[in-house]
Amino acid sequence: xxxxxxxxxxxxxxxxxxxxxxxxxxxxxxxxxxxxxxxxxxxxxxxxxxxxxxxxxxxxxxxxxxxxxxxxxxxxxxxxxxxxxxxxxxxxxxxxxxxxxxxxxxxxxxxxxxxxxxxxxxxxxxxxxxxxxxxxxxxxxxxxxxxxxxxxxxxxxxxxxxxxxxxxxxxxxxxxxxxxxxxxxxxxxxxxxxxxxxxxxxxxxxxxxxxxxxxxxxxxxxxxxxxxxxxx
Length: 232
Known about the structure:
Order of helices and strands: EHEHHHEEHEHEHHEHEHH
Distance between the termini: 10 Å
Number of helices: 11
Radius of gyration: 17 Å
Strand order of the largest sheet: 3-4-2-5-1-6-7-8
Number of strands: 8
Shape: globular
Oligomer: single chain
């Protein structure tokens, strides 16, 4: 199915979306490898896992063992390549070739690869993930800084325009999202609704995918729509 890079401004809801999307897809019959180069990411906290160094992104990049031995199994079909709980400043010292090789290896090994990209396009992992991705899931969350980020990365966004899926991730309850998209001259394909309880649920290690009631159904429907768009 390919590689999907999730990208966007800081605090736009990228990691929340990537964790719930990967979990949702893995609940079917597809194996999912979720890659996060971010140190001390909320990914580990939400999933309630502590990544050991021997089963981490760093071990996979160094090729210390086969990909099946270095990936962390978080579910029947959900696998993680993330920074270890003991990460230090030397753990992000990797090369272009290591990143490219790992992306191709995971593409061949798993049905779907989802990369939680750092917001800075000059980050080595973000740069190659965006380059190799079949589709880029661009997440805008509704902070005023989103507009500045969009302007600062205009060249990169133009280069990626043919494979971008724009996602309206409503992380702020009272924000004029239509005005923002009018200003940016773009229209989101998918709307992820604002869920007021999201921070509390995540602090308790609970996924939004499992939320009950109307909000939960609306959220799951949004993920289903995103999954369909990703596979067009």
